[in-house]
Design goal:
This protein has helices spanning 47-59, 130-139, and strands at residues 9-18, 21-27, 33-35, 38-40, 69-81, 84-97, 109-115, 124-125. The chain is of the alpha+beta class. Strands 1, 2, 3, 4, 5, 6, 7 and 8 form an eight-stranded mixed β-sheet that branches.
């Protein structure tokens, strides 16, 4: 029995906006591919804890409950990951960040950029539906 088909991954991503621009991160192990901060919920882990843990690990934000940051909306997509038949439910949270705090990247990412809505088409994203997610974020 192939256990690869028995997995189900839930990934949470933050679509972070600041000053009318969206934060994107280049993947260190896939140069030229971009992502958003966030990651998987580990087995047995509380979803809220996992989301905050991933954001802290990837960009150094240690408290999303900061009064200048708030979640506005969430939506989800299903996809395969890395060409494998592993279903992924990706939950996206729109975050308005007015804190102006600095970004501290993990080793998973080589650089970050703040992009405007019309720049989304200029980047290749890890998941094919990420440009649509970012555009929806700009609309909300």
């Amino acid at each position: 029995m192939n256990l690869e088909f028995e997995k189900f991954i839930i990934s949470q991503k933050a679509v972070i906006f600041r000053d009318g621009k969206c934060l994107i991160l280049e993947l260190s192990d896939k140069p030229g591919f971009w992502d958003m901060p966030g990651g998987r919920i580990d087995s047995g882990e509380n979803a809220d804890f996992a989301f905050e843990r991933e954001i802290k690990e990837e960009i150094g934000f240690d408290d999303l409950q900061d009064s200048k940051i708030y979640l506005r909306k969430s939506f989800s997509y299903f996809s395969k990951t890395e060409g494998k038949m592993v279903p992924v439910c990706a939950l996206f949270f729109i975050v308005n960040d007015e804190s102006q705090r600095g970004i501290v990247l993990s080793e998973e990412h080589s650089q970050y950029k703040w992009i405007e809505k019309d720049e989304v088409k200029n980047y290749k994203f890890f998941w094919e539906f990420m440009p649509e997610v970012i555009k929806k974020g700009f609309e909300n």
